[in-house]
Amino acid sequence: MTSVTQIPPLVTIFGGSGFVGRHLVQALARRGYRIRVAVRNPNVAHHLQPLGNVGQIHAIQANLRHRGSIDRAVQGADCVVNLVGILHESGKQRFDAIQADGARAVAEAAKSVGARLVHLSSIGADPASESSYARTKAAGEQAAFETHKDAVVFRSSIIFGPEDDFFNRFANMARFSPFLPLIGGGHTKFQPVYVGDVAEALARAVDGKVKGGRVYELGGPRVLSFRECMQTVLEVTERKRILLPLPWAIATLMGSVFQILPKPLLTVDQVVQLKVDNIVSEAAEKDGRTLRGLGIQPQGMDAILPTYLWTYRATGQFPRQTSELG
C-alpha cells in the first residue's frame, strides 16, 4: 500500500525579513512549516533561507500599498501573519497607508483564501490617542477583528534582542554623545520583552494553540522606567554618560527638527507616545492574555543584552549571524 506524504501547511508572513520576522521564520522552520516571506524587496530576505531546509523558505514581492501584490502573496496560504509596522513616516510609507489600510488589505486577502490571521500590534494602540502611530495600530487591530472574528492579535511592549531599535539606538548614541536624553524626565514605564519570546507566541498562534478573537499583551518580567533603561545601557556597555532630563516642550522641538532626517533619532509622534506608559495592562494579566498565560516564561534582559550590546560597543556593528537569532 502506497503512503501519501502530507504537504506541510503554508504560512505567509508579511514583514518576515524584519527584526521580529526573522525570529518567527526560524521558529516556524523548526516546526516544519512551508514559509512564504512577503516583503517589498525579496533580495533582502535571502539571509532567511539557511534557517530552514532546501525549498522550505522562499520570498515573494509584496507591498501593503498595492492590493494585487498582497493577494498574490496569500494564495494557497493556510495562515497569514502580519508583522508590518513603521516607527516613523517617510515618503509614501505613511502610518495610515501601512498600519491601517495595509493591515485591512492583508486581513481581507487572508479571508478571501480562507487563511487564519495572526496580527502583531503594539501596547498603546488606542483609537483616541494623540499619536498617529497608536491610532493606526488600533485601526489595524479593528480591521483584523472585523474581517476575522477569530483573529489572534498580539500587542508588545518594546522588543529587545540583536538589531533591536531601542537599546541599540541609545548604545550607539552613547558612543558619541556626552549625555543620554531622558525625555519627559525619564519617567515613562516600559516592559521590555525578548524577541524570541514574541516569536514563540506568534508561532503558537500559527500552530492554532492560541484562542482567537482576543488581544494578548506581551511584556517581559520587569517594568523599568525610561531612566532605568538608559542606566542599563550604560551599565552593559560600561560607559559613563550624563542622564539629561528633557522637558516635553524641548523634546517636541527636537523631534520636529530630527523628523526631517531619513532615519530620525526622534519624531514629534514618538514624543507623544512617550507620554503614556508602555506596559501590560492589569486586565490582560488577570485574564491570562500574557506570555505566562500562554505558557511562555518571559526572559529577562540581564543575560541577553550583554550578548549584543557589548559586541556593538566594541565594533559599532549590529550582530547579524544566524546563530544569534535563536
List the helices and strands and how they pair.
Blueprint: E1 10-14, H1 19-31, E2 34-39, E3 57-61, H2 67-74, E4 79-82, H3 95-112, E5 116-122, H4 132-147, E6 152-156, E7 159-160, H5 167-176, E8 179-183, E9 189-190, E10 193-194, H6 195-207, E11 214-218, E12 224-225, H7 226-237, E13 242-246, H8 248-258, H9 268-273, H10 282-287, H11 305-315
Parallel strand pairs: 1-2, 1-4, 2-3, 4-5, 5-6, 6-11, 7-10, 8-13
Antiparallel strand pairs: 9-12
Helix pairs in contact: 1-6, 2-3, 3-4, 5-7, 5-11
How would you summarize this macromolecular structure in one to three sentences?
This protein is α/β, with parallel strands linked by helices. The chain has helices at residues 19-31, 67-74, 95-112, 132-147, 167-176, 195-207, 226-237, 248-258, 268-273, 282-287, 305-315; strands at residues 10-14, 34-39, 57-61, 79-82, 116-122, 152-156, 159-160, 179-183, 189-190, 193-194, 214-218, 224-225, 242-246. The protein has one domain (10-318): NAD(P)-binding Rossmann-like Domain (Rossmann fold), CATH 3.40.50.
Structural features:
326 residues, Rossmann fold, 17% strand, globular, disordered C terminus
What does this structure look like?
Helix 1 (about 20-30) links the parallel strand 1 and strand 2 (about 35-40). This protein has eleven helices and 13 strands. The chain has one domain: NAD(P)-binding Rossmann-like Domain (Rossmann fold, 3-Layer(aba) Sandwich), CATH 3.40.50. The strands form four sheets. Strands 3-2-1-4-5-6-11 form a seven-stranded parallel sheet, sandwiched between helices. The longest helix has 18 residues, at about 95-110. The chain is of the alpha/beta class and about 325 residues long. The chain starts with 9 loop residues before the first strand and ends in an 11-residue tail after the last helix.
